[in-house]
Every structure is written in structure tokens, then in C-alpha cells.
Amino acid sequence: MWTGIIDAYRAYLPVTDATPVVSLREGNTPLIEAPRLADKIAPGVRLYLKVEGAHPTGSFKDRGMTLAISKAKEAGATTVICASTGNTSASAAAYAAAGGMQAYVLIPEGNIALGKLAQAMAYGATVLQVRGNFDAALTLVRQLTERYPVTLVNSINPYRLEGQKTAAFEICDQLGRAPDYHCLPVGNAGNISAYWQGFGEYHKLGKCTAPKMMGFQAAGAAPMVHGAPVLSPETIATAIRIGNPANWGLAQTAVDESKGGIYAVSDDEIAKAYRMVATLTGVFCEPASAAGVAGVRQLSENGVLKRGDCVVCTLTGNGLKDADFAIRTAAKPVTVPAQLEAVLSVLKF
Amino acid sequence: MWTGIIDAYRAYLPVTDATPVVSLREGNTPLIEAPRLADKIAPGVRLYLKVEGAHPTGSFKDRGMTLAISKAKEAGATTVICASTGNTSASAAAYAAAGGMQAYVLIPEGNIALGKLAQAMAYGATVLQVRGNFDAALTLVRQLTERYPVTLVNSINPYRLEGQKTAAFEICDQLGRAPDYHCLPVGNAGNISAYWQGFGEYHKLGKCTAPKMMGFQAAGAAPMVHGAPVLSPETIATAIRIGNPANWGLAQTAVDESKGGIYAVSDDEIAKAYRMVATLTGVFCEPASAAGVAGVRQLSENGVLKRGDCVVCTLTGNGLKDADFAIRTAAKPVTVPAQLEAVLSVLKF
Q1: A100 to each of A30, A49, B36, B254, how far by Cα in Å?
Q2: Could you tell me which residues come within 8 angstroms of residue B214 by beta carbon, excluding any fewer than 6 positions away?
């Protein structure tokens, strides 16, 4: 039985026998070959999807959170805190609950869909809305963790990226090799940095080659493509709507060292990719997750990808996190009388 | 790498080498020990949660659907159909997409929250609303499948229960034994029947003992407790709001043969259990899923469960399926000025 990424990759993580492992059985997510999707967007490419939405709280954040919370517990913390309106708060609240700790979540006031906070609220986190923007919330979180016995679990907590790197290990273990190209969405840029660290560690041990790291930002939130922060980032892919990535430097190193790149994909391309993933593979991902898939199409059309190339796309989150987007973008139900002929007029056999 | 329940339990399933396996890597869901939850609801009991919401589409339905869709594909079907407003339609649509088939979903008109259909719509199913109730929709589905080359994948499809029985195998394999008691929600009564079949098959092979099967219906939708169908079933646990279970006979046999029982739990008890599971274990389940946990508490308070008993509770679905319920029932966020003192007045350190 799989018992989580700390048990599975203990030798690669900063834990000892004294570390109390707080796990919800994160990791070991499916790696699914997607030949019909490849036929449509990158013919001849061997395309695999790493389904990170299969995690306990529905996103890749659980990989880092199991480590951050376990280490917090080891250090004696009883409370953890983060500023987040989305996947981080869900993961922090879940692992805090699993570890018998209290989670505090600070969010900026206004325009926050409660749906994004449903998980954190369900797991029993205390959610505090502060009259200010996200930066004001994060500043308060930093001040609190400097002065009081509460552990910060935003991605500036170094254990977060350490845990996230295990996704790279898993891909190599599942595939028996590293891909030629690894494609993924880039928001705060922590994940691409963590993957590169993971591939690098396996590479040093002779366990895999080094893939080219290909990151994709939404066109309206593409600071790394433009080479400058974006003041008012805008995109349907809310999970990567970030104008000034915290891990910009690390991500740039990943791209430079791997001879990869950071590119922009439009919201329209993201929405199309999102729909194609669901209808051609049966995997329902978050809009932001589809940025990497839109990227594969772009790389194929630009002639970067060649026939026979092995490409892995990370789908970072579960589509159920943003069910409204699915409803808004899918075909609406048709209503007919409860008669066989009426039904047959719509369904073609 | 886990490749799904058909590969894992091939010897126990009606498949051959000629069966094309359509899988999204269902099965192998976490079995998590929950000592802090047990302390609160059933002190002294060894309590485990089987987290079926970890499935690709977020519910246990995926176990049966992989088999139903694979067998449909083997028989040459290119379209499948079901009448469902919830988890069945999501699962059918996902596996149809994975298998390159078209899914049709018939739903009754009126009062259907589109949120429940977000997944089916995202996966590209054609959703048809018929002017009539659920029975009218199911009747049309039956008529269509009798006359046209389209495969019915509602639970009257026998492959559905065959696939679902693998959950019992997994529990025995993960635990190294069968539990003394197996507790789970009962709606259409297919799942309890499938589990009993699974435990029975393993028992015959000497691989486990036979647990007592304990089913729990919502008090407002408890036909098997009353011994008569309920005309207008009502409960917050929508996934088990069923007044006349399709698998009543099979479920009664499961309970009789295992010396178990079917009991009622109130909506209030379900809501309390739902909250306790999330806050004490970090597992976010559907309201209906918590019926079995509410049942454990009842069995403990009634003296049925003894210290040292081993109990497994199946949590049938993912809480993200009904995020609105979480928001309605959780504490609301508190708003404060963006000042340290204001934050500290709410968060106690």
C-alpha cells in the first residue's frame, strides 16, 4: 500500500526517523498516456499526462504540504498559517487537520469566490478576510510568523519545494526514464523549480537524463515571458494569475540549465486545451492545468517537438476545483418532452 | 505503477485478454486509520476510512464504470447512456471519453443543480433534460437500449457491481484481513451488495473472514429500515436520497448472511459526522459519505461495537462534488482591518 511521498522518497527528503509523518497518501498520481490527444495537438509525439489533480485535496500542493506540516509538527508547532485564496489554503487546512493542528488562512477582502475556500472551511481552518490586497495579507502572515509560535506554510517555506520535487522522481520511476520535454503551467514558478530540482537529483544519481523544462504562462499574466512583472495580471486560469512570481529566479535557472523556455499561451488556447483534455482522455483538470497542454500544441506547431519525442504534461489541479468554469464553457443541456421520438431527434443512432 | 482494478483483479472479473481495458487508474484508494475520529465517536475501536472520493471522477462509481465501459467497448458499442443527476453520469462520461465513445446522459427536468452535472458536461457527454421525473428518464433509457445500439451503464448493468466488489478485495489486501464490521451509506443499495460479493469471494478462497455488513440510510430516505418504499425521500445527503433501492434484495441478503443490519441516521447526525471527518482526519467527503461514520457513532453508543473491534467505513465520494454544502455549514470568514492587532484579536497565540 502506498503511504505517501515521505515514506516513498525518504532518502531524498530532509526527514529523520524522529519526523512525525503527516500524510493523506499524497503522491503516486497517475501517469496516463494520451494518444488521441496527441493525435490532435502534436501528431507523432508520445504524450503523457501526470494527473496531479488526483491528490487528496485535488492539487499538486499536497506534495509539499505533507513535508511542510510534518516538519512543523516535528518542531513542535500547533498552528500553521498561510495567505492564499486557493489550492494552498485547501492543502494547508487538510494537512493541519490530519496532523491535529490549527490552520489559519488570511485572504484579501473582496472578489473572493467562497467556492475556492470551501475546502479550507470544511477542514476547519479559521479564515480571516483582511481589508487589503493579497500583499497586505502576506505581509501580515510574515509578521505573525516572526513574532508568534505559528509556522508559515506559503511556498516561501523551503519544505514545500522539497516535497514537490518528488513529482519528478515519480515520473522517472513510472516511465522508466525522464521525458525529452516536460511541460507545465507557470504561476508563482515554484513547481517548475521543484521539478528541475527533482530531475537534477535523479540525474546526478544516474537514474535519468535531464528533460527540457518548458513552462507556460497565460498571455495576460506572463511576466517571465516579458521579462518584467505584470501589475494587473488577468487570465481565466486563476491558479496562475500571478504578476510577479516568488520563484522567478529559480525557474529561470531551471529553464536555462535545461535548455528549455517559458512561453505564453492565450486564454482561448487554454480553454480549448482544457476541453480537449477532458473529452479526449477523460481527465478533468483545472483551467490553469491546461496551459501546459496548450503549450504542447504550440511547440508542435512551431516545429520544436519532433515525431517520437517523449513529452510529459503536468496537470496541476482537479477540474472540480472550478466546476463553474466547466458549466460556463460546455454545451448546455437540451430539453425535450419525455417521448422516445423527441429524444431520438437529438440523439443520433 | 497501479494501472487500475481490471489489471489488479483480473482473475476475479469477467474479462479476457480480448477485453480492451478502458481505465483512468481507478482503485487502490487510500485506507486511512483515524484514531482521533475514533476517540470522539467510538473510543477503543480501530477505525479505518476507505477514501473512495480519491477516484478519478471523485466517487466509487469509477470501479464499476471501468468494467462496464470496457465490456461495452469489447462488444463493439460506440455510445453509452445512463439516467443520472450525479456521480454515475460523471463516471460514465469520463470513461466514455477515455474509451473514445460518446456518452448520453438523461436527466429529469427541473431542480437539477448544474453543479452536479459539471463533470459530465466537461467530459463532453450530451446531456438531455426530459420533461418528466427520474423514472421517466430511466424508462426512456431502457427503451433506447432495447432498440438501438447503445449500451446502458446505469447500475442495472451487471458489470457495475462486479467492478465495485474490488473495493472489498482492496480493503483485505491493504489491511491484511477483513474488518469485523464494514459500515457504509445505503442509497440504491448496489455498493453494499457489491462489497458483500467481494468479501464472499475472498472468504471462499480463505483470504479473509466475513465482516458484518452495516448499512446506513438517511432517516428521511430509509425504505430498508421501514420495510417499505419511501415515496418522497428527503435528506441533505443527496447521493442516497432514494426511496426504492434497485438492489434492495441483494442488499438484504448481504445483511442477513453477514449478520449485519440496515439502520437510519438523521440528517443532523450526518452533518456532524461530515464535519468531524474533515476536521479530525483531513479527508473531505460528500455529505452522503458521512452516513457510515454517523453509523459508527450510533453502533458505539448502542454498545454494538466493543473495544478492539476493527471497523472500516467507506467514504463514497469527494466533498468537492458538493462544495456548496461545505460553505453553507462551515463558519464564515471574519473580516478585519489589515493591522496586526486586529488580526491578533481573532487569532489566539
Answers
A1: 29, 34, 8, 37
A2: B181, B182, B183, B184, B260, B261, B262, B263, B292, B295, B299
| Residue B282 contacts residue A124 (beta carbons within 8 Å) | no
Per-residue pLDDT at B111: 64
For chain A, how big is the Rg over CA atoms in Å? 20
Contact residues, A window 135-164, toward B, CB-based 8 Å cutoff: 136-137, 140, 143-144, 148-150
- Residue B264 φ/ψ region, left for φ over 0, alpha for ψ in the -120 to 50 degree band, beta for the rest: beta
pLDDT at A98 > cutoff 80: yes
**Amino acid at site B258:** S
Strands annotated E in chain B = 31-33, 46-51, 79-83, 102-108, 126-131, 151-152, 181-185, 212-218, 261-265, 310-315, 334-337
Instruction: Kindly report the three-state secondary structure assignment for every residue of B196-241.
Output: HHHHHHHHHCCCCCCCEEEEEEEHHHCHHHHCCCCCCCCCCCHHHC
Q: Note the ipTM here.
A: 0.96
Could you read off the pLDDT of B237-259 as tens digits, one per residue?
Answer: 999 999 999 999 999 999 999 99
- State the distance between the two ends of chain A, measured CA to CA, in whole angstroms: 44
- At A124, the amino acid letter reads G
Question: Tens of pLDDT along A210-244?
Answer: 999 999 999 999 999 999 999 999 999 999 999 99
What would the grid cell of residue B52 be?
A: 473512495
Picking from B23, B24, B29 by the largest number of A CB atoms within 10 A of its own CB, the best residue to mutate is: B24
Q: Would the pLDDT of A348 be above 90? A: no
Q: Report the pLDDT value the prediction gives residue A110, as an integer from 0 to 100.
A: 76
Look at A131 and B283 and tell me if their CB atoms are within 8 Å: no
Please write the tens of the pLDDT for every residue from A53-74. Answer: 999 999 999 999 999 999 999 9
State residue B275's pLDDT score. 98
Put simply, the chain A residues between 224 and 263 with a CB less than 8 A from any chain B CB are none
Residue in the structure block whose three cell numbers are 470568514: B333
Task: Give the per-residue pLDDT at A114.
Answer: 77
